[in-house]
Design goal:
TIM Barrel; tRNA_hU_synthase_CS; alpha/beta; NADP; tRNA processing; EC 1.3.1.88; 8-stranded parallel beta barrel; DUS-like_FMN-bd
């Protein structure tokens, strides 16, 4: 199913969030096994896509493990089809450079997302991500989205945080949609702070305003720690989907609890594991088994070690 088909369905989209050094192929496949319906790559840097061939090949393989890249291995994981659909997330503030970088990957992903939410110091120093949410940069981000949507035949989306003041969030989202953003994902917290990027509860009222005020789908991100959070979020905001990040790092089975009603009966795995927190050793071994079946060049040992540490350290 194409991504636009996901949003056309009566069922909400359940998305695994883009996470730096965490949204690798094997982990995305794992979340898809257990209920996620859409996954994102980690944030990709245009300069590296353009000028670092190793970086480009690694991330192409993570998006599209069937790629026939010269000199790379051809062993694939058994759940190969679960690598798609995938959204390639890019960052930056240079329109032409972003477009040229995306030309390198457009044949390997199902949509391209512009990161307007990264709160890290590197984003502040290089002026991208959440640091483009100020009104003075709105024409710039509009031009990026417009250029992408006019250049490529696949959907373009945006992932944003709250503007400051938050009342500016809906006007910005409207401009992004008019520029060509096929959907908007809102992490309903303020973004331009490395220290407080997850401080306090998400302002879900702003997600609700976006859903009521936009003509494109809206994904809600934030305040999801349990199944009940998902139901409350969707009921209150009316959003077309939910995006989950850190909770999945410790418990990839988490996605199955929010899709249980959709798949029980058609997916025996969900009936077997519903409501059970995975044993950290078992889920680590499953993740590593997926890694072993992925194409050579797509697996990063340091990232794999981080995932296993998350599984072991996770506490409900």
């Amino acid at each position: 199913m194409q991504i636009t088909g996901l949003f056309a369905s009566d069922s909400p989209v359940y998305a695994a969030a883009p996470m730096i050094n965490q949204s690798d192929l094997a982990f995305r496949v794992l979340t898809r096994r257990y209920g996620a319906t859409l996954t994102y790559t980690q944030m990709l840097h245009p300069d590296k896509l353009l000028y670092d061939q190793g970086y480009l090949e690694h991330h192409i393989l993570n998006m599209d493990p069937t790629s026939n890249l010269s000199g790379l291995g051809t062993g694939y994981c058994g759940d190969l089809h679960l690598a798609k659909p995938v959204v390639a997330q890019v960052c930056g503030n240079d329109v032409q450079k972003i477009v040229e970088a995306c030309k390198k990957i457009v044949g390997h992903c199902d949509a391209i997302d512009l990161n307007l939410g990264c709160p890290l110091k590197s984003a502040r120093d290089e002026h991208y991500g959440a640091y483009l949410l100020g009104q003075k940069d709105w024409p710039l981000v509009e031009s990026i989205v417009s250029a992408l949507s006019h250049t490529f035949p696949i959907p373009i989306s945006t992932k944003i945080r709250l503007c400051n003041p938050m009342e500016q969030t809906l006007p910005l989202a409207k401009r992004l949609a008019l520029a060509g953003s096929s959907w908007v994902a809102l992490h309903a917290r303020f973004g331009a702070s490395t220290r407080k990027r997850r401080h306090g509860p998400a302002h879900l009222s702003q997600v609700k305003l976006l859903k009521e005020g936009l003509q494109v789908p809206v994904i809600s991100n934030g305040n999801v720690r349990a199944y009940e959070d998902v139901m409350r979020n969707l009921e209150f905001t009316g959003a077309n989907g939910i995006m989950v990040g850190e909770t999945l790092l410790g418990n990839p089975w988490y996605a199955l609890t929010i899709t249980l009603g959709l798949y029980v009966g058609s997916n025996p795995r969900l009936s077997l594991f519903a409501g059970i927190t995975p044993d950290p050793v078992q889920i680590s071994l499953e993740y590593l088994e997926v890694c072993r079946g992925c194409p050579e060049g797509s697996v990063d040992l340091e990232i794999a070690k981080k995932h296993v540490k998350h599984f072991i350290d996770f506490q409900w």
